[in-house]
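Q: Given only this backbone (314 positions), what sequence would you predict?
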């Protein structure tokens, strides 16, 4: 355990979300003075609520800003304005108050959706501004990209130590399995479990199965965030990913086998694939000692087991 964390006062926004749940569990093991809030206490889209939040938790050393309105492709298609407005406003408000309240370190969560649609693979942080994001994810991705501009401007004008971490597609326990909000891995897990138990002969997969993704287990992402907060102080964004890409058709087959489903996969090419390819270059994160340790199959098994134990919630 690093002495860096002992008695640090840390605020996590989005603490009760998927990633926040895992991050808070990790921070508690590090001996921090952890502060969290719920959205019904402080609506971070409301600037006065953000002021009130900082009045409650003064002298904060480090903020992890994970709060976001987020969902899968279907959710992005249905709510483009809300995704842009909510995320842009949350980040503007929280970063501004962090600057005004003298927060010593600010860790902003970015998104792989901020990358241009046709980014050369593997995605290098230097290509982040080389084009427009994939259309179904663009409002969310651009809102997150805005926060990088804000942090870099604050560093230049005020010497504010804000860093920007770009995780790839995360998965693991506590993810969103609700059909209207879920990303690809939890969506597939739920489909295969339901189909197996209901004796369905086939499962529909959105798209043609050829799009690729770089999947990262959530606890590996948490380790990256914690190490970056401790060791990284640069203005340039940092990728967190597995460094490998896998086609949706392949990941669907793996999840199907792990769930014990024996039916047929049917691809619906009328549904969007999202970004054609995703794989992150992760050399910057290697510089401060981070690398993922959970294999894809092991992470999927853990996620499936957790879902089977808790699925009454879904």
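A: Predicted residues:
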């Amino acid at each position: 355990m690093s002495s860096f964390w002992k008695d640090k006062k840390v605020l996590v926004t989005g603490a009760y979300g998927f990633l926040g749940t895992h991050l808070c569990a990790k921070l508690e093991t590090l001996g921090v003075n952890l502060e969290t809030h719920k959205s019904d206490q402080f609506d971070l889209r409301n600037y006065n609520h953000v002021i009130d939040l900082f009045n409650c938790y003064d002298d904060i050393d480090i903020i992890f800003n994970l709060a976001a309105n987020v969902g899968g492709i279907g959710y992005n298609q249905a709510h483009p304005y809300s995704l842009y407005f909510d995320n842009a406003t949350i980040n503007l408000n929280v970063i501004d108050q962090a600057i005004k309240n003298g927060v010593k370190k600010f860790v902003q969560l970015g998104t792989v959706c901020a990358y241009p649609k046709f980014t050369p693979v593997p995605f290098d942080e230097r290509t982040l501004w080389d084009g427009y994001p994939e259309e179904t994810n663009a409002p969310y991705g651009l809102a997150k990209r805005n926060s990088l501009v804000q942090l870099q401007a604050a560093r230049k004008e005020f010497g504010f130590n804000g860093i920007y971490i770009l995780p790839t597609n995360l998965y693991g326990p506590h993810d969103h399995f609700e059909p209207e909000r879920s990303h690809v891995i939890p969506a597939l897990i739920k489909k295969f479990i339901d189909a197996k138990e209901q004796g369905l002969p086939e499962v529909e997969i959105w798209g043609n199965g050829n799009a690729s993704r770089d999947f990262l287990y959530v606890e590996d992402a948490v380790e990256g965030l914690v190490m970056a907060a401790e060791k990284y102080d640069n203005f340039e964004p940092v990728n967190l990913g597995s460094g490998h890409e896998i086609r949706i058709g392949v990941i669907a087959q793996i999840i199907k086998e792990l769930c014990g489903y024996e039916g047929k996969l049917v691809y619906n090419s009328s549904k969007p694939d999202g970004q054609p390819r995703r794989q992150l270059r992760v050399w910057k994160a290697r510089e401060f000692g981070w690398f993922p340790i959970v294999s894809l199959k092991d992470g999927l098994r853990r996620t499936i087991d957790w879902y089977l134990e808790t699925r009454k919630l879904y």
